[in-house]
Amino acid sequence: MAKSQEVEGFEKVLEEIVFNKAELEEIKIAVRNISKGEITAKQLKQNLLQCRGRIVEDVSNFLVYCLNRDNSNQSGLESEQLRREMMDKNELLEIVAKRINSLVLKTKKESPAEADSLSMGLEETIKCEIERVFLVIRVEEWLDMCGYDDYKFFVKLYPKLEELYKERFGESESFNDNNKDGKNIMANKMVRLGFPEEVETLVLQYVAIRNIFQHSMNDISPSNLEQAQEAFVKVFAYLIVSNLDSKLLSNDRESFYSCLKDFFSEGLKNNPHFRKKLLERLKIVFYA
Prior knowledge:
The chain is mostly helical. 81% of the residues lie in helices and 0% in strands. The chain is globular and about 55 Å long.
C-alpha cells in the first residue's frame, strides 16, 4: 500500500510539473492567434521552447531529488517509471509542436510544392488535433472514470463536474446572491458552464439525484446510475468536440469521427458498456 501511495505521489508531482495550467492556456491562445495571424511563428516557437525547457528542468530536478533520496533502499522501479512518464509527456508536447507547425504553414500560405514538402497530411493533422484536445481535457482522467464500480462512479462524477467549473471560473463564490440556497450551488455552477440544453438538463437531473442520495443515503437505483452514466458520456463527448478546431472539424467531420471511434474502441475495450455509450454519442454528435 505504501509503495502504491508513493507512486501516486510521484505521478501527482509530474502532473503538476507538466500540465501547468497557465502554460497550457498560453499554448491554446497561441494556437488560436497564429491561425489568425496575430502573432508570428517566431514568437510561437519561442513560447513553446520556453515551456518545454521549463518542463525538462523541473522534471530533471525532481528525478535527481528522488534518486538521491532513495538511492540506498530502492530498486529503481519508481525512477524508471518517472523516466517513462517524462517521455510520455514530452511526446504530447511534440504533438502540440506539430500542430502548431501545421497552422504556421497555413498562415504563411506556402506554394503547393512547399506545403507538400513541409506540412503533414490531413490524417496526421487530425490525429495531432485530437491529441491536443486530449491533452487539454486530460482524457486519461475521464477514461479512468469508466473503470470505477457503480457506487464509486456515481459518487466521483460530482467532484469531476465541479472540477470543470473550477478550471473555468476558479473557486466557487460561496456568498454569491445566486447561491444563497446551498442545495442549488452546484446546479448554478453547471448552468454557468453553458452546456447544450440536452446535456445541461441531464447533468442537473444527476446533481439533484446525487444531492438526495447524499442527504438520505438511500441506495442508488439502476435508473439513477443510468442517468449518471448518460450525463458523464454526454459531457465527455461535448468537451472533446467543443475543443476541436472548428475550421478543421468543418472540413472533414467524417475523418475526425473515424479517428475518435478507433481510439475509444481500443481505449475502452475493457469497458464495453461505456465504449458502446460513448461511440453512440459521438456518432450522434458528428452526424446529427
